[in-house]
Structure formats: C-alpha cells, structure tokens
Design goal:
197 residues, mainly alpha, Four Helix Bundle (Hemerythrin (Met), subunit A), 7 helices
Length: 197
C-alpha cells in the first residue's frame, strides 16, 4: 500500500479540468514540460536561499500541485488518445529530473545530513529505473512500494514543513531520511523481484 493507491480518486476530481484542457488543445507533453520547469525553478529557489522558511513551507503545496499536473498529463494521454512513445519517455525522465531538482537542494540546508539526502535521491532514481525496466522484462510498468514517487514526496514534504516551521535539523531529520532510504531499498527489491504476469 502506498499513497499512489489513492490516485484513482484524485483523478476523478481532476477529470472536469482535464476535459477543459483537452477541449482547449493542450497536450500531455505541454503539461509535463510545465511541471518539470516549475520543479526546477522551485528547487532553484530552495538551493539559492539554502532552505529559507518560505520556500520550505510552500513545498508541500507545490508537491500537491505537481501531483495534480502529473495526473493531468497522464489522463490527457490515456483518456483523450494523445499517447505517444516520445511522451512516455518524457514522462519518465521528467519525474526523475523533477525529483532530483527538488530534493538535492536539501543537502545545502544547515544541519541536514547531505549524504542521506544524496542517497535518498539516488535510490529514488534507481527504484524508478527498476519500475521502467520491469516493463521490458515483465511487460508491465511496476509501481510497488512502500516508497514510490508519491511516498518520497510525502517524506520530503514533511521534512520541508518541519524545517520551515523552525525545527532545527538533527537526529529526527536523520531518522526520517534514514527510514526513507531503507524503504527505498525495500521498494527496489519489490520491483526487481516482481513476478511475470
């Protein structure tokens, strides 16, 4: 069970907006690029300010917006017959690049364990790679948890919120990132050993 399992209900709420976007000629790739550019800019703000409180407090809200954009591009592609191979590649790459842009700047924040942040980012990339590779091996893109894309966003959103509220990084942030890293390892194992269907 992961946060990703809530996606169908979230998509139902977004469907009227997706229909309007389709009617106005927007494409999935445009939404994907928009989400990626916003993520890089926001990550740049965090890096430039070394984790200013205002950037960190806005990050959980930004994660919600990005999650909506990620759902919208997929729904446009599937439900409005706009799927392309190039779009599928862009979608996978943009998710990893956006995560990297948003998470790596945490290594610059005073008191946050930079090694743990970098390890968290690297393992996130590898778990997504395992999910994509499984499509070649098993014929299905794998999303097993317990630390998928949405769950990683939850961990980093919680870290951002607590830091933004003025709680100094320390043992608690090390534990939070450490748990995230351990769950990513479990996720990698789960996605790698998925049975053929």
């Amino acid at each position: 069970m992961t946060i990703y399992d809530l996606k169908p209900k979230f998509q139902a709420l977004l469907r009227p907006l997706v229909q309007k976007l389709a009617n106005n000629g927007y494409t999935p790739n445009q939404i994907t690029w928009f989400a990626l550019i916003l993520s890089v800019l926001f990550g740049g703000f965090i890096a430039y300010t070394h984790g200013a409180s205002w950037t960190l407090l806005l990050l959980p809200l930004f994660f919600f917006i990005r999650m909506a954009l990620n759902a919208i591009d997929g729904m446009l592609a599937r439900e409005h017959k706009m799927q392309t191979q190039a779009g599928a590649v862009l979608n996978e790459l943009s998710d990893v690049l956006a995560d990297t842009a948003l998470y790596l700047p945490f290594a610059l924040i005073t008191g946050v364990n930079a090694v743990a942040v970098v390890l968290f980012v690297i393992l996130g990339i590898v778990t997504e790679m395992a999910g994509v590779i499984s499509q070649t091996v098993y014929g299905t893109r794998r999303y097993e948890g317990p630390m998928g894309k949405s769950d990683r966003a939850f961990i980093m959103g919680l870290l951002a919120l607590l830091l933004g509220l003025g709680i100094e990084a320390g043992l608690w942030s090390d534990i939070l990132l450490g748990v995230g890293v351990l769950l990513e390892i479990v996720t990698l194992f789960n996605r790698s050993r998925a049975k053929e269907q």
